[in-house]
Amino acid sequence: MTQTTTPDPICCPQFDPELWDDKSFEWENKQFIKDHVCTVFYMPLNFGCVMKRIMKKIDAACAAIPDYIGLSDHTSGWNMDIYVAVDKLIPNATNVALNGKFYSKVYEGPFKDTGKWCKDFEKLAKAKNLNIKKYYMWYTTCPKCARKYGKNYVVVIGEVE
After folding, report:
1. Torsion sign, CA atoms 75, 130, 138, 30
2. Residue 138's closest CA among 122, 118, 161, 154?
3. How far apart are CA 54 and CA 136, in angstroms?
4. Percent of the chain whose predicted confidence (pLDDT) is above 70
5. What is the pLDDT of residue 6?
6. Which of 42, 47, 95, 112 is the most exposed place for a label (fewest CB within 10 A)?
7. What ranges in 22-160 are assigned the alpha helix state H?
8. Which of the two residues, 51 and 2, has the higher pLDDT score?
9. Which pTM does this prediction carry?
């Protein structure tokens, strides 16, 4: 008797860092739905549950997630807002449009390096004469897919002026 194993499914598409590394861009009425994640000292507690709730709403609306973008806004050590890009308004969701100029930089490594990445991002933005109004973190894959791909890419996106 032989045993066959099925490879673990990949739930996150593979991320191409070149598309987002050291890029400036503008969003005009870029549609997202927003939800909240509870955190303890910035570590998410219910991220999976919130993402399932978001995905259920997106699927029910037969909507798509352009570029599979999910932005995290760490509003405090106890709360994180999550913004998932959508291609249309989603019923029974908090629909939000982002507008403005943005700058992005891709980093790779463990999440514990987030502080270093943010300091580097601020230094790069200043060198480009950009004033950061707001930071977003885009964790491009779940931990399981990051292990499968062998890379843990995180994009820091700053709304700039």
Report:
1. positive
2. 154
3. 18
4. 94
5. 45
6. 112
7. 47-60, 114-127, 143-149
8. 51
9. 0.90
The neighbouring-strand residues paired with 6 are none
Show the DSSP H helices in the chain as ranges. Answer: 47-60, 114-127, 143-149
| Tokens 């806004």 sit on residue | 73
Residue 7 backbone dihedrals phi, psi, to 5 degrees? -65, 150
Residue 32 contacts residue 81 (beta carbons within 8 Å): no
Cβ burial, residue 143 (10 Å; 0-12/13-18/19+): exposed
Beta bridge partners, 105, equal 156
Q: Is 85 exposed, middle or buried (0-12, 13-18, 19+ CB in 10 A)?
A: buried
For residue 17, give the 3-state DSSP assignment.
Answer: helix
Tell me the sheet residues that pair with 125. Answer: none
Give the residue-averaged pLDDT of 10-15. Answer: 84
* Count of CB atoms situated within 10 Å of the CB of 28: 8
- What span, in angstroms and rounded, lies between the C-alpha atoms of 92 and 20? 31
- Rounded Cα gap, residues 90 and 153, in angstroms: 28
pLDDT tens-digit series, residues 23-78: 999 999 999 999 999 999 888 899 989 999 999 999 999 999 999 999 999 999 99
